[in-house]
Here is the input.
Amino acid sequence: MQCFALPGDGTMYAVQVAASSSGDNYKLNLVHKGVNSNTNKQYMQLAYFGHGSNIVYEKGLWGEAWIWVGNYGTNTAKDGTLHYTSNQTVARICFEADKELSPEDVTEQWYLPGAHNIHPAIDVERRQIAFWSLNQDNSAGYFHVYNLDEVLAIPKKQVTLTYPILRGVAGEATRSYSPTVHNLADITPIATIVLNSSSWEGCEYNFGTGGIQGFELKGGRIYHYHGSGNDNTTDNITPVTSVVTVFDLDGHVVEQHRVMAVADPAALAKAGITDTGFMESEGIKIYGDKLYLGYATRKSTDNRRYVTILSYPLRSKGENQ
Here is the structure.
């Protein structure tokens, strides 16, 4: 799992890179299933979209599910395999089980010239949308926050994407694409926050420009999530580091917290979650008064990656907790 969304009906949406063993790892599986069950699981596939680092669920007027997800990715692998990242647009697609889409099938997508690895988060109550992205040389990351209604109202136009795209293995020819998009350059953001590799005041854990494993926009705050797994061995287990950093829209860090529940390998093993301590941060969401943190979990007993989601009460402003 790279990210997830909870509609509130006992089901979940999750996005994952398709299996490399079948040669499908240029696709994303967009899965709809029960939160605690694989019964009646449905999925659609998104070819050449990217890595799916952040998705947003939107309920349509007639109950249909709309998913916002990165689109127009490129193969960034250097060893002859496939690893699609660095997407240049954000698509809004309707979930349809058993359907496969390519980037050219998308009719609703948003573009920010010069940005790549661009992903969305939406605060419906405040009518705001944020996009996280990297600049050309990956020296800086950005959060751009916009009025959601202005973003939805941008007229469509055809553009040539900033970066050529590789749909093949290293050494093959790249090509340019010219999709029809809503161009974010046509409106002014509410806020822009620049992330660079320098240290941040009030931060114990420096997240640099990248390493993002998801983010959320809620109540005038951006919740940045990062953390990686360990070597997945039962010998000399290394506790993982998983961190939530909270920004206000002026770019100030107002809170930073390490998730201590995943930093205790013995407790994770006792709970039956993992005997190796492998908990890779994958997706952060806020629904109501709860914060949800997603993890890809591994065990020494098999080669599967399990989904683990932890929930926490989201404290009110000014509450000392």
About this structure: The chain has a mean pLDDT of 93. The radius of gyration is 19 Å. The chain is about 5% helix and 45% strand.
